[in-house]
Every structure is written in structure tokens, then in C-alpha cells.
Write a structure and sequence with these properties.
Strand content: 5-15%
Helix content: 40-55%
Number of strands: 25
Structural class: alpha/beta
Strand order of the largest sheet: 14-15-12-16-17-11-18
Shape: globular
């Protein structure tokens, strides 16, 4: 399907779903620099806000239009779209929010789709498709031809990112971008964010491909639902960003909301549900989305986020809720004491305090609440209406498979007996002992999960990566008897506070002392630390980061001391809790050292700084933990876990899932190295789960090796094995031929590059396990890939990361890369006439090779000098030559002659630039004038005149992003060129086109210099 054909299809499908098509020339805009359709917007404001005067309407439009281009302006625009524009009615002191969108009756809104919409800002752009709601442009869709070689949805994404800077006035309103090629992706519009910082997602609907799915996402009612309840501003690393729901978050949150609303309307009486979404897929945001939708749809509800650890409470409250702009006057509250919870439940004559709260389940301790429960029951007997009777209380229980299914949950549910309970888990729920487990507490009869998002779903969607494990040195692991004793015990499934009590004494089912003697042995820890240091240096450092999971707090300090012997001390830090009075001298000494080093009184402050630095700074590179951070911790750069603590069941799954976050497209697997031997008894470690629920949870490194070999075989069938050759030159010739095949065959190129990139990520993990032959074949494919990218694709964000993240690949093919450098002998990139003449006269190179080498050299010139004024002059000729070469429209002799003439033209232009002593920008102006039809002498005079007038403006790097400077450049260029163009015999229309072209090229020169 060609680009225009795909565009037609998308528009037609949107119309079928409720959008009305209006031709871009008939939208009724008041100018190309005005993105809003004022007539529609004004009419709708009057319609949605009965009784308002024209002054009020004008004030609302003026406030909307007057928002700035930066993050604060965009945040205000989103607030206005959700809640209305705050105005003073009739110039009085009475404030009101005038609705821009009617969310209560969606049929009253006007949904318009238009295409090829021209907007003018810093420069002119043409949007493929724009979606308007009530005259406000809210969705920008760019479409690329899926059959065009080397073009994908990413090109459409980057085009929208360029458009954001070209017409900031438009993109302060647009909320969602959609990029479509062979696949469709959607993303929040964040103009101030670099492309690599923008979250990009793919919507999924059963039975539809990604294009059909994103069209479903844009159904008018669903789009407004996403805009209102599933799009938020968020602070990330000190900067404002924007978050938008993934499809499974939207699906699960809406199921929760629907269940609550049906119960409150009396349509159903189900008051609970269980949601399982695999660790790393965004479970916390799913909870927040559901909570906030219910908060705005219900009248003064009570919504509780319930967690079972202070650590998770702080992560949810400080790292998520407080960093999200949830709407005007929404302030989530932290219930940090039993007294505060008692106060919340007793508020308003025991009706309860409305709002959004975060609380730990331990605040519902029976001993603390017996009196309150008795008192509330007594009140309820005399009159209804206490917090015990409220049905608009919603509890969202995090990690529900742990302490919540015990006594504390019973207390919570008895106290808030008519509330709605929704439990979330990042790991599957055990199905044995069904009367005890989470199903019984949070799943209604006949239902296991209200919504589930399996491990393999998450890996398929690339929200998480696979987890591989490999055994550490066998001598360091637990002996079989100790390991079996641990696996057969219930110790690891005990609630945390109970487990700590057991650790202080000898457990009934497990003698903790046996483990402490073994796992805290300093000599053993020293040997493992040495192994970790070597593995980290060779496989992780410089690319990713790592975590050591130690068996106890004492073991954490021992690991820190040992690692400091083998790695720089700043590489590693301990993250753990500290007691006010430690009874272990080793830990007490370390606490003093830590507080002194970080200049704090409380070690907790130092720990928080360490966690923050791990995410954002070079150091620390290794975190040493025992309990902290094993749940809820999200750091995509974490790739390797050195596991030296016996864990099983959900605690093991939660811990290893710390390494499953994707990172910049370069992490194929997270890696767990097992020093205790748990993975030797994997089936027993996960005995409580159904096999179906664990599919894809963890892979043996041997399976990774098998995946590598399967991918390698696929490429061998696709491209063929490395040929037997006698010289580097002969090998190079085969590499070039294969690269040319990729350039000429879109489907082959797509399949090869996709498989090779997977192979490359796998190679970095298991290169030490490969045979010599496998490595040689890998080098062969790497050579082809490197040559293809270098000559036919050019620099891409992924390839710019390659040197940092694929060090083993670069080492493996370093010799071959030197061979590829011989390509300079065939591709005269340097503009050197003498070298070119020698190349043409060389009789040792065949005609076909000469033609290919010249064409590739020209194409490489295009890739790496695309803003060179010489390239600008010959761009059309280069594109025409590449088209003929790719489609084999001419034979080798004809292609050679045409390529030779083009190189001669390039050399002539280079010599002209040297002779004129023009810099890049001056020659760009000069060639633009000459190519447009100016006589050379006249062009020379005009160039000098124009550059002199512009030099104060265009000499500032980044001037093209300053609207005022751009307007100044446009004005000066217009005044100069209009007069000179008349002298040259140009029409007014020709002169205007030349002015636009000059300004665009000067802008591009600034952006790409």
C-alpha cells in the first residue's frame, strides 16, 4: 500500500468510526499560522456553557490561545481540555471553568478529520492527517510508504518531532502523535523532549494489526476517554514529561471502573477483582489511572492505595503520585500513622474523609482498631451512614499475594465492609491452598483474574525483556541438603515482619544459623566478589549496571568491603535499612562511614541519594541489597543481578524481574547469575505456580545460546555462509555484493537487519560460549550489516549507540572492519580529483565494480553530507541515479557513465567553492541562486549582500529555533531577494518560492551544523 493509498485508508476508517471528513481548504481556519478553527470553537463554548456572554467566550479563547510553547503552557492546555478554561464571568469576580469538550454527552462534540493540512510557524509544514475536536487540533498523524526501502514508522515519528519545532503554536494543542509505516505507533506530544526520551507505544486490539488497532484507539469516545483520564504530565529526572496509557493499562483500569460503577448503580453486586500484570509492564500506573478516573467520576469518594511496605509506600507516593499532575486541587495524602488513619475514617461524623490516600496495610492492625470497630458498629445500629456503610470507597491493594491475605486483610475488610477491593500482583498467584490464597480474598466466585497480562505478552510488546540465568561457580552454592531444606520450608513465604522474628531465633521449620554460617562466610564472599568484579568489567561495565543480592545486612557490608578490593570503591554502594542502635559492630561502623561520606545525619538520606544516583549518574554502578529494592524498583539500566540469597516463589520472581526493563533498544535479556543454586531446582522454587502462568518467566543461558544458533541459521539461509576466499579484497567484494542485494530488496533488507540486530544483542551475552565457526559466521553477517548501514542507511539513533553497547561485536570484527576500510579505495568520498582520476584509470577494477563503487560513494556522500551546498545542488540527480541503480533500469556501462559524470559535477562544484573562497553557508546561498536562474556574477553580488545583512542573525547557533530571529531572517531575505529577483527577470511568484527555499536551507544548515 503506497503512502497516499494508506493515508486514504486511514481517513476512510476514521470516518467509519465517527470522525467527519473536511477538506483542509474548507476547514474555515483564519490563516495558515492559526491552528485553531475559531468559528467552531466559539460555537461549542457557547453551546456547552449556557448563559455565558461573548466576552466570556472571547476570554476563554484568548486564554487558550495565549498559553506558551513550553512545558508549563502545554500543561495548562491539557488542564483546559480536561476541566475547562478558568474565566471571570462578565468581568466580575465570579470564577467559572468554561468547558471546551462535553464529556457527559459525547454526541454534542464535533469530531473532524482532515488531511494535507498546511501550517505556518517557524517554517511551513504539511501535516498528513489532523484530528480536531471542537475546532482544536488534538492528534497529528504522519504516514510513510511501507514499501519504500529504508523507510518506517520511525521516519514518521521523527518528522512529527521536527514539526513540533517548526510550528510550536500547533503542537501546544496536539496531545497524541501517531506514526505509521508498515506498523503504527502512538506517543504523547512532548516538544521539549529529545526523540529518545519520548515513550512510544503500540496499541493492540484482538484480531487487528497495529494500524487497525490504533484506528480503534482513535474512536471518538475512546480517544476522549484517553485524553481525559489516561494522559498526565509527570516530572521525570527533574524535567516535565507526559505519560499516556498503554493498551493493557487502559483495559484493566476501565474494567475496574466499570465494575465499581455497575455496583453503585445497582446493576451488579461484585465488589472485588484481581489484576495480574507482569512485573515491569506499568502496574503502578494502572492503579493510578483507575483511581483517578473513579475520583473524577464519583462524588467525593474515598480511594486508598494499600501497600505492605514502607519502601513501596514511599515509591508509590513520592516517586509516582506526587510527580503526576492529577488535576486542579488534587493532592493525594499519605497516611503515615495509625492516628491519621483513625482520623480519616472518623472524619465528618464517621462518614470518612474524601480523597486519595496511600496507606500501609499494617495500619489496620487488629489490636489498634478493635475499639474503633466496636464504636462504629454501635453507631451503625442506631443510624446508617458511617464509613462502614459506604459503597463509594475503593481500595487498590498492591502486591496482594503477600501479607494482605492474612489477618490484616480480614480486619481491613471487616472495618470497610461495603467497600470495593481490587488487588494487583506483578507475579502469578499460587493456586494451591485456594481457601488461603489471594483468589479467595480478591476474586469473586467463578473468576480468577479480572484482567491479566502474561509474561510473554509483555515480552512480545517489548515492555519487558527476557530474563536469562546462569549458575555461578558450583563451589559457592548451597549444598543439596541445605537447598532442599529451604525449598521445602515455608520460611520464604512468611510475611516480612514474621520472617524477621524468625531470623532472630531458630525457626521451627528452618535453622537460620546454618544459612548464616554459610552465606556470611567472609572467605566465600571474597571469592564471589572477585568473580563478580571480573564478570562486571568484561560484560557489564560501560553498557549497563548491576545488583548484588546478599543474604543479610551483614553480608551486604561484607560484599562492599570485598568488592572495593577488586573494583574502584565508587563503583558499588549498599542499599539497606539501618537500626538506630545496631547490635552488629560491622554494620554500625559502616553506617557511620556512610553518613560521614554523604554528609547526612540519617543514613536513610544517604540511601535515597544512592538510589537516585544509580538511575541518573555514572556511579554507583553496582547496588548491594538484601531486601530493599527487590520489589517495585525500576531502573532500566540494571541488566545483571548477582544472586546470593535463597529466594523462591513470588519473592524470587519479583527479585529477578528487576532486570527485565528494556533499555534503549540494546538489552535483549536481563541476566541473573545464581550463586546459591536455586535455579538448579527451578521446578521446586516455583512449585506453587501453574506451568501456564510461568511461561517465559526465565530462561537458562543455554536456551539463549540455542536462540542465537537458530537466528544464525536463519541468516545463513537468508544470505548464505561466509565464502572461502584467499584475500581480504576478495572478501570485501562479497560483502559489497551482499550489501547491494539488501539495498535493492526491501523485504530481504528488512528481514536481515531485524534478525541481525537480535543476533548482535544475543552475541553480547553468550559470545564466550560460541564455537569458532559460529563466531566467523557472526563476523561475516556483521561485516555485511556494517557495510550496508555505512553506505546505504547512514547514522541512526540505534547505530550511534552501537560502539558503546556492542563492544564485544566491535572486538570480534575489528580485523574485518579494517578490511572494510579498504572501501575507501573503491569509494572516493574525499573530493580529490587526482585520486578520482587514478580510480577511473585503474584497469584492475572491473566496470561493474567501478559503477557500484562510484554509486555507493555518491550515496555515502548523500548520507554524510546531506546539508553540504554541493549535495543540495545535485540532490535530485543523486536520487535519480539511485532509483535507476536499485531498479536495474540501466546496465553497468550506462550506470558507470552517469555516475562518472555526476562525480565530475561534484568535483567541479567543489573547485568552484574553493575558488570563490566561500564557506558552507555562503556557498549554499550562492548555489541556490545560481540553480534558480541567477547569472553567476549577479549571484555572487547578491550572496555577499545578503550574508552581510544576515550575519548578526545566522551566526548564532540555534537561531532557527528562535521565532523572532526566524522572522527577522525571513524579512531581510525577502526585502533583498524581491528587488534582485526582479532585476534577474523573475516573477513575483518565482521570487517568493526562492525566498522560501533560501530560508528553509539556511534553517536546515543551522540545525545540522
Amino acid at each position: 500500500m503506497r503512502e497516499r493509498g494508506l493515508e486514504d485508508f486511514i481517513v476512510d476508517e476514521l470516518v467509519k468510526r465517527g470522525w467527519r471528513y473536511i477538506d483542509s481548504m474548507s476547514l474555515g481556519r483564519e490563516g495558515l499560522d492559526k491552528p485553531l478553527i475559531y468559528s467552531v470553537l466559539r460555537r461549542k463554548i457557547r453551546e456547552f456553557n449556557p448563559g455565558v456572554g461573548e466576552e466570556d467566550v472571547s476570554e476563554a479563547v484568548s486564554l487558550l490561545e495565549g498559553r506558551g510553547f513550553g512545558a508549563s503552557g502545554a500543561r495548562e492546555v491539557l488542564e483546559y481540555l480536561k476541566f475547562g478554561v478558568p474565566v471571570k464571568l462578565g468581568g466580575s469576580r465570579v470564577s467559572a471553568r468554561l468547558k471546551l469538550i462535553d464529556y457527559s454527552d459525547l454526541g454534542r462534540n464535533e469530531f473532524v478529520v482532515s488531511r494535507q493540512v498546511i501550517h505556518r510557524g517557524v517554517r511551513e509544514i504539511r501535516n498528513d492527517i489532523v484530528l480536531y475536536v471542537n475546532g482544536i487540533p488534538l492528534v497529528s498523524i504522519e504516514v510513510k510508504n511501507p514499501t519504500e526501502p529504508g523507510v518506517s514508522w520511525r521516519d514518521a515519528f521523527l518528522q512529527i518531532k521536527r514539526y513540533e519545532h517548526s510550528v510550536p503554536e500547533l503542537y501546544k494543542y496536539v496531545q497524541i502523535g501517531v506514526a505509521i509505516g508498515a506498523r503504527a505507533k502512538y506517543f504523547p506530544i512532548i516538544p521539549w523532549a529529545d526523540p529518545g526520551k519520548v515513550p512510544i507505544y503500540e496499541w493492540r486490539e484482538e484480531g487487528l494489526d497495529s494500524i487497525g488497532s490504533v484506528i480503534e484507539m482513535l474512536r471518538p469516545h475512546r480517544f476522549l476517554d484517553i485524553l481525559r483520564f489516561y494522559t498526565y504530565f509527570r516530572m521525570e529526572e527533574g524535567r516535565e514529561s507526559k505519560v499516556i496509557a498503554r493498551y493493557m493499562q487502559y483495559r484493566a483500569a476501565n474494567k475496574i471502573v466499570d465494575r465499581v460503577l455497575k455496583r453503585l448503580r445497582g446493576e451488579d453486586n461484585i465488589d472485588r477483582g484481581l489484576i495480574w500484570h507482569w512485573q515491569g509492564s506499568g502496574k503502578t500506573l494502572t492503579m493510578i489511572f483507575a483511581a483517578m478516573k473513579l475520583y473524577w467520576l464519583l462524588e467525593n469518594p474515598m480511594i486508598f492505595f494499600v501497600v505492605d511496605r514502607i519502601e513501596l509506600q514511599n515509591q508509590l507516593y513520592y516517586e509516582n503520585l506526587t510527580k503526576l499532575d492529577l488535576g486542579p486541587e488534587v493532592k493525594p495524602k499519605l497516611i503515615d500513622s495509625i492516628d491519621r488513619l483513625r482520623q480519616v475514617l472518623s472524619y465528618n461524623d464517621y462518614r470518612g474523609e474524601p480523597g486519595v490516600f496511600v496507606v500501609t496495610v499494617q495500619k489496620f492492625q487488629p489490636s489498634e482498631f478493635e475499639e474503633l470497630e466496636k464504636f462504629l458498629k454501635a453507631i451503625a445500629m442506631s443510624r446508617p451512614g458511617t464509613v462502614m456503610d459506604r459503597m463509594d470507597i475503593i481500595l487498590l491493594v498492591d502486591e496482594a499475594h503477600r501479607t494482605q491475605y492474612g489477618v490484616l486483610a480480614e480486619q481491613m475488610m471487616r472495618l470497610l465492609r461495603k467497600a470495593n477491593y481490587f488487588a494487583f500482583t506483578g507475579t502469578p498467584v499460587p493456586r494451591r491452598n485456594p481457601l488461603k490464597n489471594t483468589f479467595a480474598k480478591f476474586s469473586p466466585p467463578g473468576e480468577l483474574y479480572l484482567d491479566k497480562y502474561f509474561i510473554l505478552d509483555s515480552i512480545r510488546d517489548k515492555y519487558t525483556v527476557k530474563i536469562a540465568y546462569q549458575p555461578g561457580p558450583f563451589d559457592y552454592s548451597l549444598n543439596k541438603e541445605l537447598l532442599e531444606e529451604f525449598l521445602e520450608s515455608e520460611f520464604d513465604e512468611l510475611p516480612e515482619e514474621v520472617r524477621r522474628r524468625v531470623e532472630r531465633h531458630v525457626g521451627k521449620e528452618l535453622d537460620i544459623r546454618k544459612f548464616k554460617v554459610f552465606l556470611e562466610n567472609p572467605e566465600r564472599i571474597d571469592r564471589i566478589a572477585k568473580y563478580i568484579a571480573e564478570h562486571f568489567r568484561e560484560n557489564v561495565d560501560g553498557k549497563f549496571k548491576a545488583m548484588v543480592v546478599a543474604s543479610s545486612r551483614r553480608a551486604c557490608v561484607l560484599y562492599k568491603r570485598a568488592l572495593d578490593k577488586y573494583l574502584p570503591p565508587e563503583y558499588s554502594e549498599v542499599v539497606m535499612t539501618f537500626q538506630s542502635n545496631e547490635n552488629d559492630t560491622l554494620i554500625e561502623e559502616y553506617k557511620s562511614e556512610l553518613t560521614s561520606r554523604y554528609h547526612v545525619m540519617n543514613p536513610r538520606d544517604a540511601v535515597q541519594k544512592i538510589i537516585e544516583n544509580f538511575r541518573t549518574e555514572d556511579n554507583p554502578r553496582i547496588l548491594i541489597v538484601t531486601d530493599m529494592l527487590l520489589t517495585g524498583f525500576d531502573a532500566p539500566i540494571l541488566q545483571t543481578m548477582y544472586l546470593d540469597k535463597p529466594l523462591k516463589g513470588h519473592r524470587l520472581l519479583q527479585a529477578i524481574a528487576r532486570v527485565n526493563r528494556p533499555y534503549r533498544g540494546v538489552k535483549e535479556y536481563g541476566l541473573v547469575i545464581d550463586f546459591v543454586g536455586i535455579f538448579r531446582e527451578l521446578e521446586k522454587a516455583f512449585a506453587m505456580y501453574e506451568r501456564e502462568d510461568l511461561k517465559g518467566a526465565v530462561f537458562d543461558v543455554e536456551e539463549v545460546l540455542r536462540e542465537f544458533k537458530e537466528t544464525l541459521q536463519h541468516l545463513l539461509q537468508l544470505i548464505g555462509p561466509k565464502p572461502v576466499v584467499e584475500s581480504d579484497e576478495e572478501l570485501f567484494r562479497y560483502v559489497r555484493i551482499k550489501a547491494e542485494e539488501l539495498a535493492r530488496n526491501r523485504s530481504l533488507e528488512k528481514e536481515f537487519t531485524g534478525k541481525y540486530r537480535v543476533l548482535r544483542r544475543l552475541y553480547e551475552l553468550i559470545s564466550a560460549k560460541l564455537s569458532r565457526d559460529d563466531i566467523e559466521q557472526y563476523k561475516w553477517f556483521s561485516n555485511i550489516y556494517v557495510f550496508y548501514v555505512k553506505n546505504f542507511v547512514g547514522s541512526t539513533p540505534e547505530e550511534e549507540l552501537a560502539e558503546r553497547y556492542y563492544k564485544k561485536t566491535i572486538e570480534a570484527i575489528s580485523h574485518s572492519l579494517q578490511v572494510l576500510e579498504k572501501e575507501a579505495e573503491f569509494s572516493p568520498i574525499k573530493i580529490d580529483r587526482e585520486f578520482f582520476e587514478e580510480f577511473i584509470q585503474n584497469k584492475n577494477i572491473g566496470l561493474e565494480d567501478k559503477a557500484s563503487a562510484l554509486i555507493m560513494g555518491i550515496h555515502k556522500f548523500k548520507l554524510y553530507a546531506h546539508n553540504d551546498p554541493i549535495y543540495v545542488s545535485v540532490a535530485d540527480k543523486i536520487e535519480d541515479l539511485m532509483r535507476k541503480w536499485r531498479r536495474r533500469l540501466k546496465n553497468s556501462l550506462e550506470l558507470y557513465e552517469e555516475a562518472k559524470r555526476l562525480w565530475e559535477k561534484i568535483y567541479a562544484l567543489k573547485e568552484e567553492q574553493t575558488k570563490l573562497r566561500f564557506g558552507r553557508r555562503e556557498y549554499l546561498v550562492y548555489r541556490t541562486l545560481v540553480d534558480a536562474g541567477f547569472k553567476e556574477k549577479h549571484a555572487l553580488e547578491v550572496t555577499n549582500k545578503l550574508i552581510e545583512k544576515l550575519k548578526d542573525k545566522i551566526s548564532l547557533h540555534g537561531w532557527s529555533k528562535n521565532p523572532k530571529l526566524v522572522r527577522d531572517v525571513e524579512r531581510i531575505t525577502a526585502l533583498t531577494i524581491l528587488r534582485e529577483a526582479r532585476i534577474a527577470g523573475f516573477t513575483i511568484d518565482q521570487a517568493r518560492k526562492l525566498i522560501d527555499l533560501l530560508v528553509k536551507r539556511l534553517e536546515k544548515s543551522d540545525i545540522e551544523q
